[in-house]
Structure formats: C-alpha cells, structure tokens
Amino acid sequence: MMAAALENQIYQADDTIDTSPYKIGSRTIQDPRYHGVLSMEEVLIKSSNTGISKIALELDPCNLYTFFNGLGLAKSHLLVFLVKHQERSIINVADGEKA
Questions:
Q1: Contact 73, 1 (CB under 8 A)
Q2: 18 φ, ψ to 5°?
Q3: Distance between terminal CA atoms of the chain?
Q4: How many beta carbons lie within 10 A of that of residue 47, not counting itself?
Q5: Are 69 and 41 in contact (CB under 8 A)?
Q6: How confident is the model at residue 49 (pLDDT cuts 50, 70, 90)?
Q7: Model-level pTM?
Q8: Positive or negative CA dihedral for 54, 61, 90, 92?
Q9: What is the pLDDT of residue 83?
C-alpha cells in the first residue's frame, strides 16, 4: 500500500501520518499501542495498522490494481473483487459487510 501511495504521489517519503485511532462505520481502527504522529518510515517499522489503513483509504482502486499488476500480483481474487466492486469499499467491508 505504501509503495503504491508513494509511486502515485499521494504521499511523499517525508510525510507524516497521525496514527490516532479512528472509526470506520462501527469499527475502530487502532494499533495495539498508540504511536502518535509517525513518519512514513516509522509506519512501516512499527507496522502501524492505523497508519497503513489511512494510506490505503487514499488510494484509488484502479491505480492500486495497476500497481499490483506491475508486480505480477493482479491475479489475486481480492484485488479483482475490489476493483470490480468499488462500492464495497474498505469502509463498507469494515462495517460488517461480507467481502
């Protein structure tokens, strides 16, 4: 996700992400331990669920598919599903819908 965000210039390497917990529908996205504001590198090092999920929400599904296709990973059933069914976004699935 982060590589796709950097390649598509949605984020820059020196950007920071606030890893405060937040809600998507009825679900709270949070890390087991609060890390505060992290650099992009720290999001990876600390494996921040909150940081990566905030990055993922900024990605266009078609651009993400193109990115993964370039890596030879576009045959993933989940990727095909997400691009074909954009209305069933991460927000809807996180709120209890079945993927």
A1: no
A2: -80, 115
A3: 19
A4: 10
A5: no
A6: very high
A7: 0.69
A8: positive
A9: 53
Question: Distance (Å, rounded) from C-alpha 39 to C-alpha 51?
Answer: 9
Task: Decide the pairing of beta strands 16-18 and 37-39.
Answer: antiparallel
Residue closest to 13 by CA, chosen among 54, 42, 37, 33 = 42
Tokens (6 digits) for 25: 């529908």
Number of neighbouring beta carbons within 10 Å of residue 60: 13
Query: CATH: 3.30.430.20, 3.40.710.10, 2.40.37.20, 3.30.230.10. Which one for 2-94?
Result: 3.40.710.10
d(CA 90, CA 61) in angstroms, rounded, equals 10
Chain segment 6-20, per-residue pLDDT in tens = 988 999 999 999 999
